[in-house]
Design goal:
This protein has 559 residues and is an alpha/beta fold. It has 14 helices and 25 strands.
């Protein structure tokens, strides 16, 4: 440690990052002496020795001298800034960021993590579709009673399942109503001493439990909400991001406010004095800080005074936040980026699979490939709970509309018009086909109706002439959603023939790397999508009709 003017100075604190050049430089002294650039050798040594990296002040490092360097910096600013942009408020981090602004220990230490055990994925990125659960908690702990019960552990007050298609062509953000009656499964939770405690689940009854009880209540952690969503939708949840009241306030201010628009004036205070206390006239506004929090909590003054009405406000807010994140005013403002990165990391609680700035950055870069115009907001289809009569306080799953929406999400079907990228796998269906008598296959039931392997075997032998077919019974391991056909490289003609008979798509064909032995069978595993022999499985799932939706690239008035 150096001593200057009686103060202990950490040498590492004398170096800051220049946002325009990406170089480290000495802080400019009071005498205005020219700033020096950190030699590469010193920077490498600092990283090796674990010296504390300084956190630059917002906008610091803009006073570099030299006309030639200035021109070079201006040419590269946009490219570098796009590389540094950090993720923000849960869903916005996923939908609106291009990378990391600063990968500093300071930001890394800001992030809180929860070990959800076997729930979720241990990998930050994936070559498959990705499902992120964004949970807004109404916990009052640490807020000094400002928003009600100071000791409340909170609930899953706002929950959005963010699904990104495998080819990153589109994404769907599906809000899950907090007052929906649904069962909550058993939930193993990690305790502070490292042990695991299983919290007993609550089966679905006429009036309870509500979905929001999947978090906070009875000691349930975000992993319990992840498991509840998987049980409800049939979709695996890879990661979660948890945000609280302060996150909304801090992040909305960090981007300079979030534009919103109201069709009707809002005065959200009921007769008992409850509500968000938001007062806004009809028309466009920009909200931030406390007013932004009031906006996303408003419901009493809306059409039905319900959580479903509030969800519409929240979808508008998040879509607008994404546009603010991607706007040039944010991407090219170093001070604003610093505030945003700092606010984001302080606001996040995530699973250990993405528990670090580097992991969050990798995830954000991967998911940022989805254009804003192809991010669709929707709501899990529900209807009023018939068990309550006219006193509607809860909702239940809409069994007529929910299956179609979930099928579309599972099959990466966009709710907007997206030009589909050509699939290299389609080539697997092109070429000559073997005669039925040459096709050899063993049929397993991996998810179809009971007895599907036998009925398919009989159909192949008696209708299609595939004499060399065998019933393998139930497939080992977990049940699978989709029907698959595995075969050796020298069985491609047999695979094409069987695919044509069964109506299989190219994505169902899985060629092996090793050559098959003469006389060996291909493996046909029937999945949950199997509806019976002769029923084609190539039919594409279409976007469901009658599902309310909004889009991240459009600003429309709500309320």
């Amino acid at each position: 440690m150096d001593t200057q003017g009686g103060r202990n100075i950490d040498p590492a604190d004398q170096w800051v990052l220049d946002p325009e050049t990406g170089e480290y430089r000495l802080r400019t002294g009071a005498d205005g002496a020219p700033a020096a650039t950190v030699p590469a050798q010193r920077r490498s040594r600092a990283r090796r020795e674990g010296e504390r990296r300084p956190v630059p002040e917002p906008g610091e490092g803009t006073r570099r001298g030299g006309a030639a360097r200035s021109r070079k910096a201006k040419r590269s600013t946009k490219r570098k800034v796009l590389t540094w942009t950090a993720g923000t408020l849960g869903f916005v981090l996923l939908a609106g960021s291009a990378g990391a602004y600063m990968l500093y220990r300071h930001f890394n230490d800001n992030i809180s993590t929860v070990d959800v055990g076997t729930a979720g994925s241990k990998n930050a990125t994936s070559n498959d579709a990705v499902n992120i659960l964004v949970i807004g908690t109404d916990s009052r702990i640490g807020l000094g009673g400002k928003y009600g019960d100071a000791g409340s552990p909170g609930h899953a007050d706002t929950t959005i399942l963010f699904h990104v298609a495998k080819d990153r062509s589109n994404a769907t953000a599906m809000s899950i109503p907090r007052d929906m009656v649904t069962g909550i499964p058993d939930c193993p939770t990690k305790q502070k001493d490292g042990s695991t405690k299983t919290i007993k689940g609550t089966p679905e009854a006429a009036f309870s439990p509500r979905f929001n009880e999947s978090l906070g209540q009875a000691g349930r952690d975000p992993g319990c909400t992840m498991r509840t969503v998987s049980q409800l939708t049939g979709l695996p949840v890879d990661h979660f991001i948890l945000v609280d009241f302060e996150a909304v306030k801090t992040l909305s201010s960090a981007v300079g406010g979030v534009p919103i628009c109201l069709t009707h004036a809002i005065d959200d205070t009921d007769r008992q004095g409850q509500g968000s206390h938001l007062r806004l006239a009809a028309g466009p506004h920009t909200v931030q800080g406390e007013q932004a929090l009031q906006f996303v909590r408003t419901r009493h003054s809306l059409k039905n005074g319900s959580d479903l009405d509030r969800i519409d406000l929240q979808k508008q807010f998040l879509g607008s936040m994404i546009r603010q994140m991607k706007s040039r005013n944010t991407l090219t403002d170093p001070g604003k980026l610093f505030k945003l990165a700092n606010a984001a990391t302080e606001s996040l609680t995530v699973d250990t699979g993405i528990g670090g700035v580097g992991k969050l950055t990798d995830l954000a870069k991967d998911l940022n490939r989805v254009d804003s115009e192809h991010i669709t907001f929707t709501t899990f289809p529900v209807v009023d709970n018939p068990a309550e009569g006219k006193n509607h306080r809860t909702v239940v799953v809409d069994e007529t509309r929910a299956p179609a929406l979930l099928a579309a999400i599972k099959n990466d079907v966009s709710l907007t018009e997206v030009a589909k990228k050509p699939k290299a796998s389609d080539a697997k269906l092109q070429g000559s086909k073997a005669e039925p008598s040459q096709v050899r296959v063993t049929v397993y039931n991996g998810g179809g109706p009971q007895g599907s392997a036998q009925t398919t075997l009989q159909w192949l032998q008696n209708t299609k002439g595939v004499a060399h077919s065998t019933n393998g019974g139930n497939a080992p391991g977990v049940r699978q959603d989709r029907t698959t056909l595995a075969y050796g490289p020298d069985q491609a003609d047999q695979a094409r023939a069987l695919a044509a008979m069964m109506g299989l798509s190219a994505s169902a064909l899985h060629p092996g790397k090793d050559g098959s032995r003469a006389g060996t069978d291909m493996t046909l595993t029937l999945g949950r999508d199997f509806q019976g022999p002769g029923v084609p499985l190539t039919g594409s799932v279409k976007p469901p009709a009658g599902i309310p939706q909004s889009h991240a690239d459009k600003n429309v008035c709500v309320g």
